[in-house]
Amino acid sequence: MTLESIRYRAGSLQILNQLLLPHQTTYEEIRSVQDAYEAIKSMKVRGAPAIAIVGCLSLAVELRAGAGGDDPVTFIRESLCHLTSARPTAVNMGRAARELMEFAENESMEKNSEQLRESVISWIEDMLERDVNDNKKIGNYGAQHILSGVPRDSVTILTHCNTGSLATAGYGTALGVVRSLHTLGRLKRVYCTETRPYNQGSRLTAYEAVAEGIPATLITDSMAALTMREMNITAVVVGADRVVANGDTANKVGTYQLAISAKHHGIPFYVAAPSTSCDLSLESGRDIIIEVRPPEELTSINGIPIAAPGIEVWNPAFDVTPHQLITGGIITELGVFLPSELQAALTGRLTAL
Ligand SMILES: CSC[C@H]1O[C@H](OP(=O)(O)O)[C@H](O)[C@@H]1O
């Protein structure tokens, strides 16, 4: 059973409010682009692929209700620009916006407003189906690559944040690799970090693993290096919010130090991400904008203060792992590539951002 973070049918969209997990399973209606913007900004829905999916589906819901009137192109452009501004580091929403806008402008040359709305809705629904299919390929490619490198019957993985059904179109990226290993009967255990301050690991990844009977152990972020030394970790597999041309990768804060520790312990470090999380328009990680989130997300949990009042806070939501530390490879729906191979592998698959 994979958890449904998103429920969509023509004209209707609901999201699982991830701020309430694991204690409450509550779905909320998304009736407009603004509803989606607020859900993404507040992280009721999160995860680079899921952000793009919810953003675009909210547009489809409004278009089905006739939004944009006689000028749907302007409505579409303004909506996509607004949605892209919600969270700046993950590239998926910006990529989808760029590609959808190009499509809509081309279609508007030969279609009336009603036909254009239908055509754009179909484009969005096709994108959802493609993302679902791509996720499964990532899981399978990643599992095969990791298994090819180990003589042992089963493997132990360490992962960070949440990259499963709650962050994607369903199967997951890094957690999709774990799912594939588990389905193959080759997963001994996955260690998941709690991932402060939003606790994607303890609240979301642990929730998915327990729901599916995946053998998982929760650790604090500070236990990761000791776990790599003591627990015979086969590979570290994480997700991505933006992989750039040289393979540098922005991902949940804490990923960089995991990569350093993996290097020290001689453990292969993998990034799992669809090609839609890649941005070849940026040369290196220095060019990636890192979202800084509100201090309260670090100084309190469920509204309960856990830090000294008045303390200064720095709360970057992501950090950048240099490509030199991504020693296992970048796992995509097209295969597993070394960072140095990525640009060639993706050129032609990706439209320029
Ligand atoms: C496949 S999800 C990718 C990525 O998104 C997460 O960030 P957030 O929870 O802030 O949206 C995390 O960095 C995952 O690795």
From TrEMBL:
GO terms for cellular component: cytoplasm; nucleus. The record marks 161 as: Transition state stabilizer. Its EC number is 5.3.1.23. It holds the Pfam family IF-2B. It catalyses: 5-(methylsulfanyl)-alpha-D-ribose 1-phosphate = 5-(methylsulfanyl)-D-ribulose 1-phosphate. InterPro entries: IF-2B-related, IF-M1Pi, IF_2B-like_C, Initiation_fac_2B_a/b/d, M1Pi_N, NagB/RpiA_transferase-like. Keywords: Amino-acid biosynthesis, Cytoplasm, Isomerase, Methionine biosynthesis, Nucleus. One of its GO terms (biological process) is L-methionine salvage from methylthioadenosine. Its main location: cytoplasm. Gene3D superfamilies: translation initiation factor eif-2b, domain 1, Translation initiation factor eif-2b, domain 2. The active site is at residue 241. It is found in: Cytoplasm; Nucleus. Pathway: Amino-acid biosynthesis; L-methionine biosynthesis via salvage pathway; L-methionine from S-methyl-5-thio-alpha-D-ribose 1-phosphate: step 1/6. GO terms for molecular function: S-methyl-5-thioribose-1-phosphate isomerase activity. Belongs to the eIF-2B alpha/beta/delta subunits family. MtnA subfamily. PANTHER family: METHYLTHIORIBOSE-1-PHOSPHATE ISOMERASE (PTHR43475:SF1). NCBIfam families: eIF-2B_rel, PRK05720.1, salvage_mtnA. Catalyzes the interconversion of methylthioribose-1-phosphate (MTR-1-P) into methylthioribulose-1-phosphate (MTRu-1-P). This is Methylthioribose-1-phosphate isomerase. It comes from Pagothenia borchgrevinki (Bald rockcod).
